[in-house]
Structures are given as C-alpha cells and as structure tokens.
Amino acid sequence: MKRIVLFDGACNFCNANVHFIINRDPYAHFYFSSLQSDKGQELVQKFAIPKEKDSLVLIENNKVYTESSAALHIAKKLDGLWHLLFLLILIPRPIRDGVYKCIAKNRYNWFAKKKDSCTLPSSEIRRRFL
C-alpha cells in the first residue's frame, strides 16, 4: 500500500516537513511528490483535489486527506512518539483546520518561498519521490 504525500515544492516549510517525515519513517511508509511536478498534477487530477489545497495532501488507500487530517494521518505512521499526535483527531475538524490554515497561509512569510539550494538525497531516499 503506497501512501503518497503531495507537498508544495516551492515552500521551504513544506520541504522541511518532507525531510522531517523521511527522518522519522524508517519503514518507508510514505512516497512523495511535489504538487508542481507532472506526477503531482496527475494525482491532483486523478483524485479531484481542489486547487486551493496547495500545501500538504496525503493519499492513502485511494482516499485523500487534506489539511490537519493529512498531517495527523502522517504523524500516526511516524517513528517515536509522533504517532500520539493522532489523538488530536478528536478535536473538531473546523478547529484543527483553522490552525492548519493559519500556518499554511503564512508559511511563505514565515519560512520564505524558495530555497537557493537543495540537498541531494541518497539513492534510497530518491526512490521514494515519484
């Protein structure tokens, strides 16, 4: 079962989150694709993901999770105590998504939009990018 994380490839914060996930996913549960890539756009169309969902999307078992639900479902599979964050799913979605949207709306201001350089991942990690 592939779990695919779509992310904003032009966002430093989103790229940092991808590295965060990779570093806490020793069993390679997640594969990644930037929303701007051809594969990302193919998945956006295939799963009818709205254009305004531009920061983090999780596709798992042919189901799409967005906003806080995506983040929490990702956390559930991470190594360490990160899976405990999934308990936040008990908070009503409008409240969770409100916090998520505030961070997503300000991510370019707080963390800048583009990186000047990229780290070159190992071949093992590169295989996880679609």
Automatic annotation (TrEMBL):
GO terms for molecular function: protein-disulfide reductase activity. Pfam families: DCC1-like. It comes from the Bacteria. InterPro entries: DCC1-like, DCC_oxidoreductase. This is Protein of uncharacterized function, DUF393. It comes from Sporosarcina pasteurii (Bacillus pasteurii). The lineage of its organism: Bacteria, Bacillati, Bacillota, Bacilli, Bacillales.
